[in-house]
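#onboarding

Welcome to the new folks! Below is a worked example of what a typical request in this channel looks like: someone posts a single protein sequence, and someone else replies with the predicted structure as tokens. Don't worry about understanding the tokens yet, we'll cover that in week two.

Example request:
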Amino acid sequence: MQTARDLFGHRKHWAARFGTAPFLPMSRAEMDALGWDSCDVIVVTGDAYVDHPSFGMAIIGRLLEAQGFRVGIIAQPDWHSAEPFRALGKPNLFFGITAGNMDSMVNRYTSDRRIRSDDAYTPAGEGGKRPDRSVIVYAQRAREAFADAPIVIGGIEASLRRIAHFDYWSEKVRRSVLLDAKADLLVYGNAERQIVDIAHRLAAGESITDITDMRGTAFLRRALPEGWVEIDSTHLDTPGPINPPIDPYAMDDNGGTRAAAQASAGTPASSEAATQVVRFVRRVKSADRERSVIRLPAFEQVVDDPVMYAHASRILHLEANPGNARALVQRHGHQDVWLNPPPIPLTTKEMDQVYELPYQRRPHPFYGDAEIPAYKMIRFSVAIQRGCFGGCTFCSITEHEGRIIQSRSEGSVLREIETIRDTVPGFTGVISDLGGPTANMYRLACKSREIESACRKPSCVYPGVCPNLNTDHTPLIALYRKARELPGIKKVLIASGVRYDLAIESPEYVKELAQHHVGGYLKIAPEAIGEGPLSKMMKPGVGTYYRFKELFDRYSREAGKEQYLIPYFIAAHPGTTDEDMLELALWLKKNGFRADQVQAFLPSPMATATAMYHSGKNPLRRVSRGSEAVVIPKGLKRSAQPFRTQHTRPRRGGRP
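Example response:
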């Protein structure tokens, strides 16, 4: 794995002399109080500004502040005009545009495409405070406000739309968000490294158009730079004929057949198709890998051909390991969208520094006493890790945060718990969660850095736990024990989802969890029962669930506690048949569950399962015209089944 410059190793910008702001300013009056005449960076976000490390704008803002930059926040602006985007003046360096912690389309619409009435990231949970496709709208308004200000887009919405992607809400393939937003640069992933480097390079006088060498970024260019080797993606994973064969009876403009015209010209009948794709080198020497780029099928191709879309999705996911990923390029009209390889994950030291920045851990005073539901849910929680190596095909976590786990140190986590205890209003002694994308991946990693850097598997736990994966839960058990022993801490709950196929590798962890960190119910996610949908989700079989349940129930009884597992299920996932849905309904009845909430599969941009949904092919294997077809449940009849279950609970008097 390559190394990266220390995130906090830059010389601080001169504006560091202004010190730390109590809250990052949202108005000119606050800027005046701080002695600022301008902002170096302005972050525009679709969420209310909460100065807490669970909110992206707070992390990015405080991190840039720690580098010496003056950062302002424009939160949930009225997008109907450019005026709100002028509120803090023109940024000296750039606008940073994000839709917020959630994709704006997922935030605003249900899986049935019905508009939601509420928004957890808005004061009082009020809906309608952000536009559809917020990144595009905000970026265009910022450009209207200050035409020459550089615009950098990021966050999960931009991250998942960095190439041509299937858009569930319009049922079509859309081009990269970089073009629609008319942005200068796109950063994907959590993006701390990119944002810090961009700010310092712009502050040093570099033009944003010259920043083309940074990992974790996407940008536009007209042609391949000199000295680069281009690889056709179809050489790496042949999808079959690129274009349909020419109809020998189709007439040309002169009244003759195209096949006859080509024959008289001495060209084969397939040459018209062949001219649309240039073949490049199949294999590249190791010494040339850093200067090689893989050309994905063009936007125009994936729009017209779902099989080519599935192929492009497969290549994108194969080139996702920071240790071996190559740059990708995709033609959109007369321009190329160029994706540099993913960023190098943060070290434990860097993670500690990011999460120990001077957050106020509460909403900006602008909101008064208004309750922000998302903040209420996480205000007493602590993030201990990032990333997920589960690789679930319907999930965006791996595509956004990467599969390499980035963990904080034990000391840093304990200090944050003490900070919550001592400073957060309303704390009653209960930590609501110690977790992350997954509760129990803390400090888990490949046993070999060399193997990790070379690996191209999409999951470390499917179809079974990889023998090279370290599954030792001892550091996490030790963290749990020390956390609950801190003075003033009455209870530490685990609210993040537990990966139970990992947990059964450590019965001691299951015991610790069941006896000390569950408040009666524990969320886990089998997602399905049948092998058909499970194989397309890359989730373990139901036998693994039973093994975990056996351990959980035993240790709960030993502690004298009556506790239940709350399984989540997704309905209508690719690969799900009517028989699978019936099997799930019978399983729920047999095990004494009733539906409490409902979740149907929602095809998020760029997910592997979305490629299945759109193409009817399985990108987990080599994609070709004749490759495995995937059953795709669509339509009202299948999507309205009553046993589509996300959250279940035992019947009264029934078995858990």
